[in-house]
Amino acid sequence: MKKRFQYSRRRLSAAAVLTVVALASLLLRTETVATNASRLRAERESEQSSAARVASLASFDDAHLLSLRERAKRFRSGLGGMATLEAALRSLGTRWVRESDTISEHGSYVTKTERFAMTSPSAADWPAIVGTVETLEKLPGLCVQELELRSTEGQGGRSLGAASLVLVAEMTRDAGPEVSR
Known about the structure:
Elements: H1 9-56, H2 62-77, H3 82-92, E1 96-106, E2 109-118, H4 126-138, E3 142-154, E4 157-172
Antiparallel strand pairs: 1-2, 2-4, 3-4
């Protein structure tokens, strides 16, 4: 006699539901593991990239930064102020006439470039011109960028026809854009 396999529909449906839930949880776990592995791989690559960038910046160690700070400090201490420009204008006197000027701003400091021409220069003015240039070069933040002397030929021989100079004043921001033109 053959025994028949007996089953209950309720048990069969419960077993089917358990199988679907087990497969779904297995699929979810596999997906979570894959996502985590991908995220960890991306983080590892990002960390390696960051470490490589930090290693390439090794030239900016403390000794180099200290040297750079020292250079910036020397630059700032060499800047003049409005008083420097006023002293330069007093040194030039009334015979030097301003021809042009430009102002350029660079963050915490201002550079003012001015061109002056001497009225009616003569050869006898040469020592005064040299003395004026020496005086101007001693002022902080001021530089004589150009000194131009032109001679002319006349009946009495050669004479000083024109004298001009270009001053560059590097001033702190507090002397700023209100610098008189």
